[in-house]
């Protein structure tokens, strides 16, 4: 789906995004956002980037978990939609996290200095300690390109955590009556509300991502763990894809 079309959808839906997202995921999205933070250990002083940050829901949950674990970090949340970011900044202020969470306008698929429009932020190589993307990849026109950019901007040894919905996933759930209807309805609803695409090649796209630094060294994501987790209600037949990896130099 075209990025401009997705941006238009989010601009129209920004006012009701929180409600509709909770409704579609039946509240489970909160647990997955917290899970992402638990899967990404950080230390005080680390800089973390949250890709497709939207209204800041994930970033706020990351901060809660990491503070509970005793780590004081700063999060840069990026999104290309100004209305979503404006709502996110208000949310961050309500939680009193203005000094910990910074929401900026940027294109997840193009963050390289010198190649971005004037109204978008750019980020140097190796400038973040970790990167997370929760429920964001489905709205990207080219997820693999975004994964390559994530690889470029985190430091060698930095961790990446990606969590997203996949639908349908054959063999993951028992076959129940009307499953086909629910699959079609749910996919149509997610496309209508958020421009969501079903990227069932998510793991392949991540593991085929690579980048090169200014010195010609090549890096890739070394997989730590990956899983497809079925949702609690089998009739909806949707799985949550979880990927955890680390930026590693090719040939190490």
Please tell me about this protein's structure.
The protein is of the alpha/beta class and 252 residues long. It has a single domain (3-249), classed as Vaccinia Virus protein VP39 (Rossmann fold, 3-Layer(aba) Sandwich), CATH 3.40.50.150. Helix content is 35%, strand content 25%. The chain has helices at 3-13, 17-25, 28-38, 57-68, 82-94, 143-153, 179-194, 202-207; strands spanning 47-50, 74-79, 101-105, 128-134, 154-166, 210-212, 218-230, 239-249. The chain has an eight-stranded mixed sheet with strand order 3-2-1-4-5-8-7-6, with helices on both faces. Helix 6 (143-153) links the parallel strand 4 (128-134) and strand 5 (154-166). It starts with a helix and ends with a strand. Residues 169-182 have low confidence and may be disordered.
């Amino acid at each position: 789906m075209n990025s401009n079309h997705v941006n238009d959808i989010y601009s129209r839906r920004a006012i009701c995004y929180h409600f509709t997202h909770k409704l579609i995921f039946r509240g489970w999205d909160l647990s997955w956002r917290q899970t992402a933070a638990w899967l990404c250990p950080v230390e005080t002083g680390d800089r973390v980037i949250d890709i497709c940050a939207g209204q800041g829901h994930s970033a706020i949950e990351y901060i809660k978990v990491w503070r509970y674990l005793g780590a004081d970090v700063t999060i840069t949340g990026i999104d290309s939609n100004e209305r979503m970011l404006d709502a996110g900044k208000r949310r961050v202020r309500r939680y009193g996290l203005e000094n910990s969470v910074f929401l900026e306008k940027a294109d997840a698929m193009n963050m390289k200095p010198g190649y971005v429009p004037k109204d978008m932020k750019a980020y140097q190589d190796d400038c973040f300690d970790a990167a997370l993307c929760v429920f964001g990849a489905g709205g990207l026109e080219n997820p693999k390109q975004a994964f390559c950019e994530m690889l470029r901007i985190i430091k060698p040894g930095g961790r990446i955590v990606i969590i997203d919905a996949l639908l349908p996933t054959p063999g993951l759930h028992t076959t129940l009556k009307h499953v086909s209807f629910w699959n079609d309805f749910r996919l149509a609803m997610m496309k209508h509300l958020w421009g969501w695409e079903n990227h069932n090649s998510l793991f392949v796209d991540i593991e085929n991502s690579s980048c090169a630094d200014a010195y010609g060294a090549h890096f890739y994501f070394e997989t730590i763990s990956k899983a497809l987790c079925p949702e609690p209600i089998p009739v909806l037949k949707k799985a949550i894809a979880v990927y955890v990896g680390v930026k590693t130099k090719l040939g190490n």
